Amino acid sequence: MGLPLGAALAACGTSGPAPSGGAASGAAAGGNGGGAKASYWFLSGPPGEAPRTAAVKRFNQANPNGQIDFNVIQNDAYKTKIKTAIGAGQAPTIIWGWGGGGLRSYVQAGQVEDLTSWFGENAAVKDRLFPGAFGAATIDGKIYAMPCETVQPIVLFYNKKVFEKVGVQPPQSYGDILDLVKKFNAQGIAPFSLGGQSRWTNMMWLEFLFDRTGGSEVFQAVFDGEKDAWNNPASIEALTKMQELIKANGFIKGFSSITADSNADQALLYTGKAAMMLHGSWSYGIQQAQGGDFVSSGGLGFMNFPPIDGGKGDPSDTVGNPGQYLSISSKATPEQKEIAKKFFASGVLDEAEQKEWVGTGGVPIVNGSDKLFTGSKDAEFLNFVYGVASKAKVFAQSWDQALSPTAAEVLLDNIAKLFQLSISPQQFATNMNAVIGK
Amino acid sequence: MSATATGRTSSAAAPKARGGGVLPWLALPALLAFVAFAVIPLIGVLLLSFTSWDTLGTIQLTGLESWQSVLSDPGLPHALWVTFLITALSWAVQTPASILIGVFLAGHQRYRELLAVLYFIPLLLSSAAIAITYKALLDPNFGLGAGLHIDLLTQDWLGEPGLALGVVIFVVSWQFIPFHSLLYQGGVRQIPRSLYEAAELDGAGRVRMFFNITLPQLKYTIITSSTLMIVGSLTFFDLIFVLTEGGPSDATRALALDMYKRGFQANLMGAACVIGVILVLVGLALALLLRRLGGRDPNASQLEGA
To answer: SUPFAM superfamilies under this entry (chain B) (predicted)?
Structure first.
C-alpha cells in the first residue's frame, strides 16, 4: 500500500487500441506457425487456474504467429521457483506476481521492464482498470506491472444463523465487537475463527486495527521507511488492542494450531463453532464449495470492518489484494516482449475472462465489471465487493506483500509472537523498527 | 592402531587386488560424485557466506557482515538449542524402541515377519504426507480428539511450545523407528547362535542374555544407527516445515528451518549460508565424536571366544 492509490496517473485520454475481446475470433487452426514464443508461469488450483488457462488458449488461437507457452505451478512452490528462475536469468517472459515489495526487489535487480511509457501510449488499456490496482504495480513513480485478475479485499464474515440463535446484531463498531465477544463466549461459541498458524491470517487483524485506530498513514510511514515508525502512539495502541482481544478470548481456543491452507478456519465459521471471521474475499468461494448449503441458504453474512470509537481511520478504507500482477522479464527477446504486450492489450481480462472470474465468485478489476453480475447467484456478494473496492478511500495492499521479502518475514515472525503473547506491543515495535527500510 | 588396521584390510583385500592398482580406481566414481555434489557446493556456500545476496541482484562481497549479523542474533542460540533438543530427545526415544523392536523382529516366526512388513510402512511414506496427516489428526476442532470426543487428545497440540516440540519428536520417531529397527534386526541376526547356546547351558535367562550378549554385540549397530539419527536430525527439515513451520512463534525453529527461512523467505542468502556452514561444522564434529566412541579399533572383533 503506501503507494498513493491514486498514483495511477490520471488518464491521458487518447484512444488507444480498444482491448475488446480478441478472443472468439477465428484462427481455429491455430497452427503453431513459426515465430517467437513467449512463456508464462502462473498458479495452479481453483479458482484461478481455469480462467488463466482459458485466457492464454484464446490468445494463442487468435495469434498463431505469436504464441504463449504456459506452465502451471502450485502456489507455495511458485514463490521459490520464480525467484530462483529470475535470479538465474531463466525467468519466463511474463512474470505473474502480487506486486508490492516482491515486485520492488525485481525492479531493483533490473529484472523487469518499465511499462510506464507503454501505458502512456496505450491509455485505454490502463483506463479500463480500477485505478487503485496500479498502486502495487508502481515503484518510485514508474509502472512495472500490468494489473490483472480480481480484487480481493479482506472482509468481516459472520454466521447469520449463529447471530440469530444468540439474538444479536452484526457489529457497528469495535465496541460492539468487544460486547459480542462476551456474549458469544457466554454461549460457548467462539467469537472469531482464526487460522493462526498461517501468520498472515493474524496480520489481517493488525491491518484493520492500525487503519481504524490511526488511519492509513500509520503503516504508510513504515512503508516509506520513516525511522521508528512503529513507535507511533496509534501503532502501540492498535497492538495493545490486539493483545486485549486475544486475552479476552476473542479467538477460538487453540487458534495457533489451525492453518488457513486446510481451510479449517473457514470450516469453523460455516459449522457454527465460531460466529465471525476476518478473511480474504476469496473465502466466499471456499465456503460455498465446502460449506454445504451454508452460503446458498443465506447463512453467510459479510461486511467491511467497523470503525473504532474515537479512531482516526476512514471506515471506507480496506486492505487486501488490489489485484494480481503481470510483469515482463527484461531478459526476454524483443519478439517475446511484443507478444507479452499484445497479450496485455488484447488478452488479459477480455470479456470472456471477466465472465469466468465472475463465475468463480471474483470481481475482475475492470471498471463496470459489475454489469456482469446480474443473474449471478452470487450477485449480492459480488456487488458488495465491487462496492468496497470502488468506494474505498484507501485500498491498502496486504503488509506482507507491500514490504520487502526480508522485512515481511520479520513481520510475520513477530506477529506470531505477538499473538502468542510472548512479546509486548513495545517489543514488537522495537523489533520491527530494526528492519524498516530493509 | 592404524598399522593393524591397514594390515588387516590389505591382507583381506590381497586376493582380489592381485591385478595391481585396480582398487584405487574403484573409488573414483564415488569420489567424483562426492566432489561434484558435496565439496564444490560446500565451497560455494562458504564463499557465499562472505557476501550479501538477495537471490535476484548481483552478489556483493561484504566480508564478515553476514557472520556478524547471524552470530549476534539471539535467534541463533535459540535455534541451536531447539536443534539440540530435537536431536537428543528423538535419539532417546528412537534408540531403545528400535532396539526392542529389532530384537523382536529378528525371530523367524511367521507372525513376526508379517509384523516386520507392517512396521516398515511409515518409512515408505513421504515426510510431507506424514506431516499433513498428523496435522489433520491433531486439529483441535476437527481432529481425532474432537471426532472421538476424547478430551485428552483435544489439546492445542501445535499451538503450545512444549506440546509442539513433543509432537515433532513423536512424529519423527514414528517415521524413523522402522528404519532403525531394520538395522537392529540385521544386527541381531548376525550374532552367532553359539553365544546364546553357551549362555543357556550356563543357565542364563532371557533378560540376562539380552543385556550380556545382544546389547554388547550390537555395539557397532548402535553407533551406526546413532550416527544416522543424530546427523539426520541436525538437518531435519521437511517434516517440521510442514507440521509447524517452526512455530508456535519459534518454538520448533531448528537450524535447518532457520536456514531455509532466512535464505528463501527473507531473501538473505549470505546469512543462510553462514548457518549452512555452522550446520556442516556441527555435523562433522558430531560424526567424528561418534566414531571416537566406537573405540580405538573399528575392526576389532566382537567374537573373541565365540
So the answer is: MetI-like
With CB atoms and an 8 Å threshold, state whether B156 touches A197: no
Could you tell me the pTM of the whole model? 0.82
Contacts with B268 from chain A: Cβ below 8 Å = 406
Nearest chain A Cα distance for residue B264, angstroms: 7
> What DSSP element (H or E) covers B58?
none
Tell me whether residue A393 is in a domain: no
Burial zone of A138 (CB within 10 Å; 0-12 exposed, 13-18 middle, 19+ buried): buried
- Please report residues of A whose CB lies closer than 8 A to that of B247: 197, 199, 256, 416
- Closest approach of chain B CAs to the CA of A152, in angstroms? 23
Check if the beta carbon of residue A180 is closer than 8 Å to that of residue A170: no
How confident is the model over A194-236, as pLDDT tens digits? Answer: 998 889 999 999 999 999 999 999 999 998 889 999 999 999 9
Are A183 and A124 found together in one domain?
no
User: Is ipTM over 0.90?
Assistant: no
- The CATH number that applies at residue A358 is 3.40.190.10
- Closest CB from A87, A197, A410 relative to B247: A197
A380 within domain boundaries: no
Q: What domain range includes position A291?
A: 153-319+398-433
Residue B265 in contact with partner chain A when CB distance is under 8 A: yes
For A195-316, list the strands marked E by DSSP. Answer: 274-280, 300-303
CA geometry: angle at B164 spanning B257 and A434, to 5°?
50
Three-class SS of residue A300?
strand
Q: Could you tell me the domains of chain B?
A: 52-271 (1.10.3720.10)
In this structure, the answer to whether residues A261 and A404 fall within a common structural domain is yes
Q: What is the pLDDT of residues B254-263, one digit of tens each?
A: 999 999 999 8
Q: Are residues A340 and A427 in the same domain?
A: no
Do A108 and A169 belong together in one domain? no
**Is the torsion defined by CA of B120, B122, B123, B125 positive or negative?**
positive
- pLDDT one-digit tens code per residue, B248-282: 888 899 999 999 999 888 888 999 999 999 999 99
